[in-house]
Amino acid sequence: MKWRQSVTALLAAILLLSAWSGWGTSRASAASVISIYLDGQQIRGDADPYVVASTTLVPMRLVSENLGAQINWSQADKVVTINQGGTLLSIPLGSMTAYVNGNAVDLQAPVTSLNGRIMVPLRFVGQGLGLTVEWNQAAQTITLTTPDGSGGVPTPGVPDNQGNLTALRGAWVATVSSLDWPSSKDAAKQKTQFTTLLDQLQETGINAVFVQVRPSADALYPSSLVPWSNVLTGTQGKDPGYDPLAFMIEESHKRGMEFHAWFNPFRASTGTSTAGLASNHVAKAHPDWIVNFDGKLYINPGIPAARQSVIDDVMEVVNKYDIDGVHLDDYFYPYGESSSKLFGDDATYKQYNTGGLSSKGDWRRANINDFVKTLGQSIHAVKPSVSYGVSPFGVWRNASTDKLGSDTRAGVTAYDTTYADALTWIKNEWVDYVAPQIYWSNVNTAANYKKIVDWWADAVAGTKVDLYVGEAAYKVGTSEAGWSSASELTDHLAYTLDREGVDGNIFFRAQYLLSSKVRGVLQEYWKD
Q1: How far apart, in whole angstroms, are the C-alpha atoms of residue 469 and residue 451?
Q2: pLDDT per residue over 113-133, tens digit each?
Q3: How far apart are alpha carbons 56 and 181 in whole angstroms?
Q4: First to last CA, the chain
Q5: Short-list 401, 404, 415, CA closest to 368
């Protein structure tokens, strides 16, 4: 990243857009705002870019606020000076000549003052800098890539040079039990490990990370509601000496990668003992909300106050941090319940079944529906741009049980096992996307990958809900049919790329994605 760090501010200061053929010959209208992306990250100033005499001009403040260059405006001399990495730019107001380390360079449009804002011409595309520059006339988007920048890794949702929205390529980063991160309890090492992880994921082709920030009703950020996670220091409630979430978001955005905050909604603890839990952990603060089931502690979704507390936890992050999305996994009601092993919520059902639902299953689904809907409304009320989605189990229901279900014979379903009625969420557009865990192969006859993808794509058709397919990188190299090599994953990618209604893929999880069995195969696939 050294090359990029040394020239990034310089590039955006001039911002590199000379009189490129086809970029227009008059000032862009107010309705056609030009968007500028540098290595996948959109950069903005306090005024919109516009075109004069085939040259795009941007506000000087774009440089100082977004890129951190040393910039100065001399009112007496009417000169903009920009210093970055030993390179000094001098651009006189109104002049058709600029100076780079004292050397004169002709401009096609001068520095101007617009409503009190100094507007700088974008120039010097590729002159010794080796930039890749793409202009999308239809979308009014300029994409700049430095030699060691994102290098072809698309930013999710940004138009490519054909005007098509680019696909999301995500990776789940699990922090519970330090599965993917962190493996050290030292803050400096944690930072190094995370930046290395990001670099490796981006080199592979990933453009979005879904990081588990609330693994077990605890936090990877300073919170007034829940304790610090023990994965950071070994002791729950102990301050690690920095804000990991703020650090991770900043590092992700530096690389033009989206950062989605992943929450486990109703898992309280991966064990049953409360001895090592902090005093403000929900299992100690509200033991009446907790259900001990199958060796784990769960927050009871049937208690309205308990559901609201989880929403409050999520909203603390939404309000405090510049996240790109809120992501929920499938921890609603637990897997593994049977007639001989029950989730103990009979008393809760009697107390809170105010709607008089005759089936406990319907009541449980109503609880989850209420939670999903209310959380989405809360998020979009304060930050409409934050993407909100859920990753349910891959099969909603089998068609043999429900005519609306898929042509599958799954022994577990989202609707009947975890009481996650994703079809209702989609139809009501309570979520921005769904990311079903379609962890089966193309040769699986009971739950076939292509059939399930088709079912979900049909489910979101005609709605505003996006579909990201959850992919099982962890199965590559196992004995399960179809998973002998990573070619199964590339077959999946080829299928979803051509399938209308699929907007991207998310891989479970980072460690497996970066394994020798998977990484190189995906890297080569995406290069092609």
Answers
A1: 13
A2: 777 677 766 643 333 234 455
A3: 43
A4: 23
A5: 415
